[in-house]
Structure formats: C-alpha cells, structure tokens
Amino acid sequence: MPIAILIGAPGAGKSTVGKALSKRLNCQFQDTDQMIEARCGKTISDIFVEDGEPYFREVEKEIVKEAINSCEGILSLGGGSVMNEETQELLGDLKRRVILLEVSISQAAPRVGFNKDRPMLLINPRQQWLNLLEQRTPIYKRLAGFCLSTDSAKPAEVADNIAKYLEQL
Fold first, then answer.
1. Spatial separation of the C-alpha atoms in residues 14 and 85, rounded to whole Å
2. CB 31 within 8 A of CB 76
3. pTM of the prediction?
4. Residues 138-154: pLDDT tens digits?
C-alpha cells in the first residue's frame, strides 16, 4: 500500500513534490505517467496520437491499479486517472492517504508550458486546463483526505507539510 497517493491537475507539482516527499521519507517514488510510457515504449503524447485516448485510459487504469497494489512509497497519478470509476473505488478505500495538490492557472501555466507533451491541452490550452479542472475538481476533493496548495510554495515545503500530515495517520 502506498504511503501517499498524489492527485491533482496538470502543473500542480505531483511529480516534483512526490520526488521531494520520497526523499524526505526515504522511500520509493512512482509516477504512473512514467510507468505508462515505459510499458508502451512511447510518450503519452504519442500514445494519444497513435493509439487514441480510449486506449491510453485503458492502459492508465491497469497501471494505476497495479501501482496502488504494489507501491510501498509515494505514488503520483496522472491528472485524469481519477475520472475512471474503478480508480475512484480504489482511492476511496485509501482516502486518508490521498493527497490533493491544488494549483491556480497562473502558477500551472509556466510549470506545464501548455505544450505538445500535454495532449489534453493542445487546442486553446488555458481554456482546456480550466475545463479539465471544472470536471475533475469535485472528484479530486471527494477522493482526497488532505488538500494543500502548491502555489508559491517550494516542493520541499509542500513535502514537509504532507509529511507532517502523514505522521498523524
């Protein structure tokens, strides 16, 4: 079982904070987006273009399930993975360990860069990001046991705050 599962919008800092948190807690870090790329042998953008979003979401669902069952450290989930009902059920059972990293668009924009590596943000990226957030935020909030903003915070500071929360579990 993971020590913590990080969820949130693109640009929230899930990977960066996850690495800082795993270092602070001296445990492994896994990122489901990286796991998907390793399994498929191509970038997420290429998977979207060559195989389509439905294929990507199916692979993502399986990777997330495997990771939740095998990870014993910090796990970072892709921003859209929470839209899957099976994933929501798995996370619901681990609610206290699910950490929502929140971010404003003004902070997310320079982090994400709204570039081709974010297939869900290709056309009118700022509006797409806002649309994604509108759909996902109620789910993020329902699944999370702990929420905190990464706006104007250093990854190590966010990791420290998460570690303090986890000490209470």
1. 21
2. yes
3. 0.91
4. 999 999 999 999 998 99
